[in-house]
Amino acid sequence: MPEKILVSACLFGERVRYDAGDVTCGDAQFDAWRAEGRLVPICPETVGGLPVPRPRARLVGVRVVADDGSDAGRDVTAEYERGAAAALALAKKHGVRIAILKQNSPSCGSRFIFSSDFKRRIPGQGLTATLLRRNGVSVFGEDEIDAAAAWLKAHERT
Q1: DSSP-derived pairing of the beta strands 57-60 and 138-141
Q2: Rounded Cα–Cα distance for residues 117 and 39 (Å)
Q3: Residues 80-100: pLDDT tens digits?
Q4: What residue ranges do the domains of the chain occupy?
């Protein structure tokens, strides 16, 4: 049985991003995994209850804040936490041990997120990436497909 891979739905081609767009991953290996039926897509933000489109959001300490035009923003931490929990539940349901998530996202960022003023990328990880890692899932960004493929080669059950 091929190893299942949890993926951000926007990388899968679903129009679920804050701007109602997608960022379909066009990597040949990603496409091969899709053809093999390995990919399990989820958008933690929409599953957590946020609409499409929605205001962009950022991590501010341990809170997730939506850009509603005010200085403080609107706290959407609960929605992000619900989405992260749903992603973990889906991973467990499918026996997922590896994920490829959208870099820079306050939910899915695996190595980088945007600064609280949205002006630059900074080291960090989103709520879903954090929860998955805490539960033993190896998390990669869409810019790390080769590393994910190497992980699969080393860890895939035969």
Answers
A1: unpaired
A2: 33
A3: 999 999 999 999 999 999 999
A4: 5-155
